[in-house]
Amino acid sequence: MRGISRLEGKYAVTMDLYPPQGKEFTRIQPFFDNLKEGRFTTTKCKDCGKLSYPPRVVCPECLSENLDWFELPKEATVVVPVVEEIGVPIGFETPLCLAMITLEGYFTFITRIINCKPGSLEEGDKVRFVSYEVEPFPAEFGRETVEIKRYYFAFEPVDENKRK
Amino acid sequence: MRNVCIIAGGMSQWGVRQATLRELFQEAGKACFEDNPMVTNKDIDGLIVASAYTERLATQTHLAPLVAEHLGIKTRSVCARVELLCASGSSAIIMAYSLIKAGVADVVMVAGGEKLNTPQKWEAFYSQLCSVDHDYDGAHGLGLPPAALAMVAKLHMKKYGTTEEQMAMVSVKNRRNGLNNPKGQFKECIDLNTAMCAKVVAKPLKLYDCCPLTDGAAAVILASEEKAKQLTDRPLVYIMGTGQCTLYNASANKVDWTSWEALRIASQKAYSEAGITARDIKVAQVHDCFSISEIIEYEELGFCKKGEGGPFVESGQSDFGGQVAVNTDGGLLSCGHPFGGTGIRQGIEIMKQLQGRAAKNVEGAQFGLTHNFSGMIAAQTVLVYGREK
Questions:
Q1: Residues A70, A73, A77, A82: what is their CA dihedral angle, to the nearest 10 degrees?
Q2: Which residue of B has its CA nearest to A19?
Q3: Nearest 5°: phi and psi at B250?
Q4: Taking CA atoms, which of A41, A70, A84, B84 is between 20 and 30 Å from B206?
Q5: What is the pTM of this model?
């Protein structure tokens, strides 16, 4: 016995990059269902009106569980772009394009920028939401392992000249 | 409430070590006891261990009893692990301080360390994805700071005119100060040109703007004032004030990336408890995981005005002989950064500075400060230490 197979060349590849998905594993499955449909959503409290991101099951303002799904805009503005040239996590390739972006009037956050010529992105550029299928989630139900499809998102430059 | 003193401190050799996590803790514990021969493992009634990546990188949880067993410590008051990533060590010191202050414990060892260099180098970078908000920031490939701090640097340069040269000056200063710590990872000075011409990590951050991946551990012993008087004949160094503030975690909820409100809140609480102001701090160990962070920390800790962190380092105000000597033993940029060990190494250097027995002393320092931020600039931890008058 040498040990388990995950140590053979896969030692580091044992952390899941993406959130758990499937109604058996998360209470915010609608967020991922919406990603599948190309929609970017988050939760809004029906009682106090607080819009939260990331999506919640309890409002962080008034602690209500009476939440609704809210559609966020799909176009955003780049506040500051960055290209990471070394030291990116396994599962991502260098150069890794990231940017702090603003969804006008909602949130400013850091996101991966895909389909982008490295170094071409500038402050003030428009980027748009893209969702896509990622590695499935192998879930065990009794003696069966079922692959649960999963979805995630990033943003891409609106300007075709900056896309690759 | 009782007064609490720091009475001993030591560290293992830090760097890329041919040693496991438990071996690093043994080295650090031994060095700590050797630092003060008046205290032995039989005097310790509590142990708090600080380590962040212990499950993934050392495949070990329930770490505190393991460290206690290896150091011959039999606890009665507390035996547990504390985790706040890069501020794990300082958090553990705050917990031990609080327990002693409240009378729950009398003499507590605080030991922190990390084994970050594993057979596959990718592991530590990979683990970083779970140190930010894994599901909403990590999943974009955003690990620990290079990318986020590169953005912060760009914003600070644009808003306040900070230059890449000024950032490099932080690295040059801290690499030079690293000669004061024989157990730090690096012991080579660099010049400004070397720092400016180094390989780009994430523009504008270059190799020497970033702290390395480090294996290492450090330990200190805290005691009630009454016990401290029995267990040391050196000048007593007290923990005078603490502050720990978090206002957000995910990148989406940060209000201003160049203005670190949480650090202002944490430091003001610590200064207030100690009955001092920023001007009273003559020696400080701050969280220079990246050169730009040290510049912003001068500002938020109140060492200089907002936006003037760049000129502050350029004019030598943060070096020996300046207004406040910052990172006198090399900081993270030179000593390296085994997350759980860092806050404890900082505490050791401040203790030695205030007792007048550091490798290079800041003359006449009455008060010292340690600071860490953790996660994606999500939490800020500050301690103020003071020497007996």
A1: 60
A2: B135
A3: -75, 155
A4: B84
A5: 0.94
